[in-house]
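Researcher: I'm comparing several assemblies side by side, and this is the next one on my list. It has 924 residues spread over two chains. Same procedure as the others: predict the full complex and return the structure.
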Amino acid sequence: MSSGDNITGDLSQDDSYDLDRKLVVQILDAVEQSDQQALTELLENLHAADIADLLEQVDAGDRARLIRLYDREFDGEILSELDESIREEVIETLNPLVLADAVREMESDDVVDLLEDLEVPQQEAILEALEDADRVAVEQSLSYPENSAGRLMQREVVMAPEHWNVGQAIDYMRNSEDLPDQFYHVVLVDPRLHPIGNVTLGRIMATKREVPLTELVEDTFQVIPADQDEEDVAYAFNQYHLISAPVTDGEGRLVGVITIDDAMIVQDEEHEEDILRLAGVGEESSLADRVIETTKRRFPWLAVNLVTAVLASLVIAQFEEIIAEFVALAVLMPIVASMGGNAGTQSLTVAVRAIATRDLTGSNVWRVIRREVLVGLVNGVIFAIVMGLVGLAWFGSPILGVVIAVAMVVNLVVAGLAGTVIPVLLEKAGIDPALASGAFVTTVTDVVGFFAFLGLAATVLL
Amino acid sequence: MSSGDNITGDLSQDDSYDLDRKLVVQILDAVEQSDQQALTELLENLHAADIADLLEQVDAGDRARLIRLYDREFDGEILSELDESIREEVIETLNPLVLADAVREMESDDVVDLLEDLEVPQQEAILEALEDADRVAVEQSLSYPENSAGRLMQREVVMAPEHWNVGQAIDYMRNSEDLPDQFYHVVLVDPRLHPIGNVTLGRIMATKREVPLTELVEDTFQVIPADQDEEDVAYAFNQYHLISAPVTDGEGRLVGVITIDDAMIVQDEEHEEDILRLAGVGEESSLADRVIETTKRRFPWLAVNLVTAVLASLVIAQFEEIIAEFVALAVLMPIVASMGGNAGTQSLTVAVRAIATRDLTGSNVWRVIRREVLVGLVNGVIFAIVMGLVGLAWFGSPILGVVIAVAMVVNLVVAGLAGTVIPVLLEKAGIDPALASGAFVTTVTDVVGFFAFLGLAATVLL
């Protein structure tokens, strides 16, 4: 693979933040020559997130050699940045002593994130490496449901009684031994530890000592229950522009805090899940997956698609006689189905996205359905005219032109209707509309497309 | 529309953060009865973002009536939260005095965001409402390119000379008159105003007065050039877990700061753009768009699809004779094309997403292409066997079974290849792969699917 090779050059037009391809080549050279010093120097100025990306991009053999050569320099942050798909493999490759050191360096919420996806023996090995206090904290976090606010939060909270003033808060913080590295708010709590407001560090800095903290609380204040789904947490951060939010247990007591950087990661994961589910790809897929895993993840959706395609074929089979007589029908029929499938995908994507952002609600669902049907009608009429003329010109049959035109209008209207109603009904049934809408909608547009076109043809041509 | 109606009930299973439908009904009742006091009370406890959502969800008539009735209570934050699609309409409806007050309350970066999408006369009306200093700030921001870091940043920065210690920084901040409401770092600058490090407020709080600030700077420090694209800004925040980052001009001087909440909004918008572009929907679409706008946005992709569908039909037309003889071919041919289209969509979505996250690079593109082709081969063989047997059972023809099986393998391999290579080449050509890959890939899978199946059939059956 030469570096002048077109497809392997830097991919993006503007390559800010792309891993420099020359650097990657140098790193792999150092690995090949087992030159530990060169490797350490090359990796020294890379952020852990970039080293993790590098490990994901090289092949499994280079990955293992790199990790063994890098050895004691491998730190916990790289582990937290690694994609889930190769974490287990990397952990197995790591020298157990290096792994133990790496894990001890990590923040407790990062350890939780790491443990979640590992097999039990690996989990236990890592838990054993932790100090007692950290292990208890990690085990407590793991007691919250997967993908919940409880797993996402950090337990270190800076709080103050509601009756304190600015001076007391400053003195408390300046005398405190173990403030978290990153925090943005002081959480005010009542005597039963219920959070009642957030005061930003900036406001505290800017205000005179004698002012009560209660006068400085932010207008927007959202308390997150520990069992709330992380998707809802990310929504709340995005909707209300939160920077950090207190997390409470079943009794409403403060047990931790979630910060916006964690919410941003969840938002990114949720988007990835939506986009991959809409395309019928298992949501945990990654470029580092191997052929067998990837095949397994892609298989179910293709299997569903095969069933729907066979259903459509069964419709076509009802019209074998007329197709044998007018072969033009076989030539034209995929056009109607294809246009319906595309229009349906447009409608369903807008609907799925609007459901995810809470923009499609009981208040406007009828208006949206009406709009989608009207859009289908308008576009249907335009494309009906075009295809009617194409049909006429191509096969010289005005009747054939009319048949394809009518079928086009019918299918695009049905596409708008199905593309909106199906995601809404799936959501109400508790099924992720991103996952299942595509199969249902294209089944509808295929079946309706072939049936309308061939059925109409059979009626008028025979 | 009764409230017992199934489809209009609360949409999500778990309705945290959904606008309460009962509240919406009460609000619309108050609007209908022109009961200003009731309306003000109902909206009092809603966050501006929720009021903006409400305005997006009701129809245009209710929206105008609500805004006129709410009148002076309408504040600037609602304006910044509104979806672009209805901003102009809302601004035209607002009493000009209320609009002027609302705009004067807004932060300067929010005013910039508001102005960007307005027509010139509306822009000028709003600029005139601003005080002189604010107007200059807004006009300076507007001088940066659209979607650049310069437009995204806020100009208020808390900075300190690099030689200061903690005590000096605290004294400076506590004596400063106009600290920003929200800030998380003190930016250290050299004498030429080049940013050289970030110190978090938390670290300053936790550290003794005599410690130099340079000892407290964060390990991760990214400086953003003012002309960087906002998509890259969002990537940097997500990749390096930044909370805020200094923005510099062409000479490397500090001119502003971008905070993670703005980056999170950009990330959300970029995802929305990707997901809608992949589905062939104009990226600025919104549920509040009207039929004509929506039709116009959907039309181009459907037009492209019509061309590709006609191309596929031209392929079919080459085989009219054999179809007339063996109508089973017309029944089965859509299956091969449909499976290829779906497999291609899977591959291209993974590729588009991986390009966006910088995971697909020159270093691993060949390995990914090989993997996708192998996945296509494995799934192709499985579905070939299934469809071969279906073809045999359905039409009693072993040859037909073999033909569909071979065509299936060919098309799924081509789908994996095209689904990866096409997005990569589009990206290299400077075309957004999310926008254009779908049309190219499905054209390839349709044409190859029909040609392989019908061509093979013509060879062995005639």
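Model: For your comparison table: Chain A touches chain B through 146 residues (CB under 8 Å).
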